[in-house]
Design a protein that fits this description.
Chain A is mainly alpha-helical. The first copy, chain A, is built from 21 helices and 6 strands. In chain A, 68% of the residues lie in helices and 6% in strands. Chains A and B meet through helix 2, helix 11, helix 12, helix 15 and helix 16 of A and helix 2, helix 11, helix 12, helix 15 and helix 16 of B.
Chain lengths: 431, 431
């Protein structure tokens, strides 16, 4: 029965792409996942581990036999192996390294020696290079002879005798030129090399900005040490955008697969910050308790001004955070953008001042209450624009990820200013 | 002097990548931009237009001579031309189409006949195909002879006599096999074709999920009509993530280059929705004005419960919106995730209930006030979790982009429930 089940499983997975199998495995429970992979046995496809969420693949591999792990790792390029094992505990890491072939192990260890989130960790060691004196025919002959080519590659990197890249020839140019053409004649000299220590954000930015498909990675002596391909860059780019979305909402590095308890812990810090923020706002309100006691309508209306400020501030800071991430917002246009945001805040402030002023007068029949609401709205939306643009810029200058803390700062400002201006004006003009 | 300036400009731009020149032009004012491009004249690089923000390139091209536009368009693949002219007004569109060569014009017009945001608009017509009976040597010879190859390509698409793709051969396999190998022997049969009417989100998802570098596009009769490459998919993927971030913050399709007035108009609708929402919350508070009049401490503390609920709800909905976008959240795990979110809400609710309860007692010296705060916190964070996960799921089921409206719905719920439960409990337990 076991054998029958195994054949069924293999037949079921056969037509599926590794990424789809990984998705299926992510959706079932941890126990089911282990049972499925154990049943799969030595037919296991290593790509599936590479495609899975890292937490899950690390957990899963803890309980697999050395044989299955060895089998799985054999299918992978070194960059995928590095990606998998960099999050493992020491003993498990050793076990996986032990299952690799000698050359691959050395390559993986070399990659692991570079800091996390740098080009060194992203690159694969498998690449195709050629010396400067080769012709098209030499390169093609050599590739046909080699049995150790990367699974997929897009360029031949031309290197000088000291292994310094001097150009690269896309396979499509190699294809379209006669065998006796010198590689140096058709090589792209404007190619970009990536320093092995460059941050992964900068790598992803370069791939995206220059539409690159692959790029050679060089060490401090400018020697070729690996190559990064677009799929790796695409992953980083997605991670970065994802991180911004999550951080802006005060959600950390969580996935849908985290347990209830882990999720609770990950969400807690942001809520704690927000608690402090809102207590601060309450302290402001407390200063005006006698005003509120006199006119209870103020308690009813005060959340409107604060909430509008919070939303306007969030709009501005989201635009600012993304513009900083995509390098659209730079010191050269910062002043222009700050000025624009202040005007936008002022304009929307005036529009909403009129609307809310009318609402206030109709609702409570006190014209001066409408004036207070309107004035507070103008001030708070202006402040929201100013805080929304300047907080991320300042954090970025200080080297702090603006997505991380901006939202807390900005809503604190808009809450405090919103309550203070509204209640303060009310106290001055209505009592 | 004019000539000297022109030489200087050309020398300055010469070493720069088109994408970098585009960035420079985006940062200067519209008048400067036009002056620079006019000075550039017939040395203009069409790629620069393709790399610029579309609004800006369309505006810029309005004032250029036909010669310069014709010169610029000649450098571009058809997908880039389509990208540029799809946003133009009719007369300008005709002008640019008129500047193209016959064959390119037909290809561009064909692409424009497909709906916006579909594969048909993303694809380029330039591709390399081969009949099933060819061998490696035939393909290489043919490519060497051709003078009309795409600037960059990664695969040879194998087609049957009816032009239906039956497989594809990556250039790297073509390189590594002897000349007499049949293409059908080394072709990848598991390749994916993309229907010309497929939405660009689905195209981008497939490229990302399956790490594809290029994919053939087929029409309703399964005939090859074009090819989409990874850089186009990467752009869409980035756009989609960007759109989610922006929509979640209530910011529409705006850029840093929009005018103050345009930005104000784009931000207005979301603020208007928020105004209605917060007036709704005020109406709830108004029901309890006598309770607030009796105990002014309630006015001081009530924003805390509402604000914590809003933040917890935003955390959950952000995770949900992204999980829906990346297809991690599916009907098969929805119930599990909903359950988890409710438990997370309940757990954090209990933790913060204790904290805020203690704060309330210390601050105002009324133990029952602490109890009311704590209970309201538990209820509101539970409701926040439930609303945060179910609102996006329901919107997605209804075919509405969950990023668009979720945030307004969820914060309405947490504001209304937050004020209602806190003030209601206070009225029942404290008066």
């Amino acid at each position: 029965a076991e054998d029958g089940a195994r054949d069924d499983l293999i037949a079921l997975f056969e037509p599926l792409h590794a990424a789809d199998i990984a998705d299926v495995l992510e959706q079932v429970s941890a126990t089911e996942r282990e049972a499925i992979v154990a049943l799969w046995g030595d037919e296991v496809d290593g790509e599936v581990f590479a495609e899975m969420d890292e937490d899950i693949s690390v957990e899963l591999m803890e309980n697999l036999s050395d044989d299955i792990i060895g089998e799985a790792m054999r299918d992978l390029d070194t960059d995928d192996v590095v990606d998998l094992i960099e999050d493992m505990e020491e003993p498990q890491k050793e076990r996986v390294l032990g299952s690799l072939e000698e050359a691959d192990r050395a390559a993986v260890q070399q990659s692991l020696s570079y800091p996390e989130e740098t080009a060194g960790r992203l690159m694969q060691r498998e690449l195709v290079m050629a010396p400067t004196h080769w012709r098209v025919g030499d390169a093609i002959d050599e590739m046909r002879k080699s049995d150790d080519l990367p699974e997929r590659f897009y360029d031949v990197v031309i290197v000088d005798p000291r292994l310094k890249p001097v150009g690269k020839v896309p396979l499509s140019s190699l294809m379209s030129h006669p065998r006796d053409t010198a590689l140096t004649e058709i090589m792209d000299e404007e190619f970009r090399t990536i320093p092995v220590g460059q941050s992964q954000e900068d790598v992803a930015y370069a791939f995206n900005q220059y539409n690159m498909v692959s790029a050679p990675v060089v060490d401090e002596q400018d020697r070729l040490v690996g190559v990064i391909t677009m799929d790796d860059a695409m992953e980083v780019l997605e991670e970065e955008a994802e991180e911004d979305i999550m951080l802006l909402a005060g959600v950390g590095d969580e996935t849908l697969h985290d347990s209830t308890w882990n999720t609770t812990k990950l969400r807690f810090p942001w809520l704690a910050v927000n608690l402090v923020t809102s207590i601060l706002a309450s302290l402001v309100i407390a200063q005006f308790s006698s005003t509120i006691e006199a006119i209870v309508a103020l308690a009813i209306l005060m959340p409107i001004v604060a909430s509008m400020g919070g939303n306007a501030g969030t709009q501005t800071l989201t635009v600012a955070v993304r513009a900083l991430a995509t390098k659209d917002l730079t010191p050269s246009n910062a002043w222009r953008v700050i000025r624009r945001e202040m005007f936008v805040g002022l304009l929307n402030g005036c529009i909403f001042a009129v609307i809310i002023g009318i609402v206030g007068v109709i609702w409570f029949g006190t014209p001066m209450l409408g004036v207070v609401l309107g004035l507070a709205m103008i001030v708070n939306l202006l402040v929201a624009g100013l805080a929304g643009i300047s907080v991320p810029i300042v954090l970025d200058k200080l080297g702090v990820d603006p997505a991380l803390a901006s939202s807390a700062f900005v809503t604190t400002v808009t809450d405090v200013v919103g309550f203070f201006v509204f209640l303060g004006l009310a106290g001055a003009l209505l009592l």
